[in-house]
Amino acid sequence: MNATSATSETPEGPSDPGRVILLTTSHRVAPGLLSWPAWQALRTADRVLCADGAHPQLPYLREAGTAVDETSISAEDLVAACAGGRTVVVVATGEGEPDLTDGLARLAGSGRVPMPELELLPASYDLPGARLLDLIQVMDRIREECPWSSRQTHKGLAKYGIEEAYELVEAIEDGDRDELREELGDVLLQVVFHARIAEEDEESPFSIDDVAATIVTKLIHRHPHVFGDATATTPEEVKEHWLRTKAVEKRRESVTDGIPLHQPGLALAAKLASRVRSAGLEVPLPAAEGIGYELLALAARAESEGVDPEAALRAAARAYRDAIRGAEGVRG
Q1: Element spanning 81, H or E
Q2: Which of 119, 231, 263, 318 yields a CA-CA distance of 20 to 30 A from 204?
């Protein structure tokens, strides 16, 4: 066989195994918001496949003029579809395409089939905080379908918020990173749960987005040294900015306004002492006898020395607990 009668073996000829582009997308990004390389790949592909007929991207791809075949293809058929230098884009499902990629790997390992070039092309990415959308979706479903969760109210959940906050503090004081991550999630759940319940209020509903918007506005307003023209170079100056803007926002008549009176006693006493000291007031402690007044004086003293009396008492109590267990012969 001479060269002129032989079949062409150029890269663009029949022997070119072609190319497979596995296009991945994030369900946490609005459908249709794909990267420019992804749109280029879709528009220049010889064929676009998607095994999931309910894939959220399909309506937007078709609106943009991209023909998509709703079909599940085997590794062998995909290799055949690429033969001759063709490019096939596979729009991956939410689980990816493990069967397809495993099949391609087996074919490549056999060495019997010329394999197309395989490219993984992320078409959209999760932004920081994107998994919060998953939490909101899960919470929506639980609220609608769980017999217990669907009946909960703000008042009914209140005790759990307190418990989770204490468990978070314990994880922080114990220095347990795994426990800290879990407890932060439990506290976050309380916020999302309450916001989900609030959506159902007939008179003044609000959503998790309203909650987030409120705290964003507050943080920006109370950090003029970050988002405005003010200057603060020390933590003390930052605190001054915070207290000053907070006072204007709340229009409080007393430095004690806004202090939750149902918090633990030592924390309450320390908070009152802190407000007095920050305001530059001279208010002597009540001159009375009794353990309560003695604890009040200790809490005020701790606050003036920069010590959290609640944390200090917890540390001492843990040491006492360990001593008790030691006396009982309990290890660990």
Answers
A1: helix 75-82
A2: 263
pTM: 0.69
The tens-digit pLDDT sequence of the chain (332 residues) is 333 333 334 444 457 999 999 999 988 888 888 999 999 999 999 999 999 988 989 999 999 999 999 999 999 999 999 999 999 999 998 777 888 999 999 999 988 889 999 999 999 888 889 899 999 999 999 999 999 999 999 999 999 999 999 999 999 999 999 999 999 999 999 999 999 999 999 999 999 999 999 999 999 988 888 898 888 888 888 877 777 777 777 777 788 888 888 889 999 999 999 989 888 889 999 988 899 999 999 999 999 999 999 999 999 999 999 999 999 998 86
Cβ contact 31:57 at 8 Å: yes
Question: Which residues make beta-bridge pairs with 50?
Answer: 70
Cα within 13 Å of Cα(58), Cβ side:
15
Partners of 49 in beta bridges: 69, 90
Which of 246-252's residues contact partners 24+ apart within 8 Å by CB, and which partners?
A: 246/222, 249/218, 249/221
Q: How far apart are the C-alpha atoms of 88 and 262, rounded to whole Å? A: 65
Q: How far is CA 324 from CA 155, 315, 321, in A?
A: 37, 14, 5
d(CA 196, CA 206): 8
